[in-house]
Specification:
The chain is an alpha/beta fold. The chain contains twelve helices and eight strands. The chain has a single domain, classed as Vaccinia Virus protein VP39 (Rossmann fold, 3-Layer(aba) Sandwich), CATH 3.40.50. Strand 4, helix 7 and strand 5 form a beta-alpha-beta unit. The relative contact order is 0.15.
Length: about 260
Amino acid sequence: MISSDFSRKVKQSVSNNFDQSFALYQDFEDKHHLFAELAAELADWVGVRPGSAVLDLGCGNGISARVLGDQYGCQVLGIDISPKMVEAGQRLLGGLEDVRLVVGDAELPGEAAGEERFDYALYNASIFVFPDAERAFREAAACLKAEGEIAFSFYPSLLGSKDEDLLAEAFRRTGYPSPKFRVITSYEAACQALADHKGPVSHHRWVRPLDIEFLKDFFSIPAQSSSLFPGLDYAERRQRACSLFDSLTDIAAGGSVVWRMAKA
């Protein structure tokens, strides 16, 4: 049982971190195109049908919503807890009439969706910061059509050539204290919650070569650096993130960044 106080604190922290991140998120995306490619990978794997109605939960600044609208012709309702991210997304999406972004609690999509019903509920790189995945999927399922599907992509794993955890190795090498929790909700917990509400779960892995400069850019975003070094100010988090990944330079070759995905 997730306490209401814990949930409130997590959501406030997430909102604050992403409010500080909207400009750097777009700079990062302009350079690396990660979230657009991740959104397309998730949509292709799920088999999103052109013209479908999609809930984009934890939509951020609308990068996933834009892919769904532009490439798949979907009607998209994006919901995010960060007002600054949504505002940036609304500017980004200007001319897409079938894509809407609203500020709200994506654990409670019915508040924004009302009587609308959707073909898909997608969480592109967001479910791991939801404090209550069980509630999130229960509420999302209530917004879907009878045959609607739920899917998510998950926080990246950094794996060596023998599948060793390179992030753990980086913390060992630098001597920085490893965060107690890298994510709020684990992949296993999210998958169990998904199975409870939508039946058997299928899994997929999107694997990209490990790139030290990419990792330094990604984890220099305020919302991402806070997952590694909670409690520190941003300047210190960014400096430590750069040192953390520089420590892996000698073993980066053959490594990979792995995004896990699940659907039901």
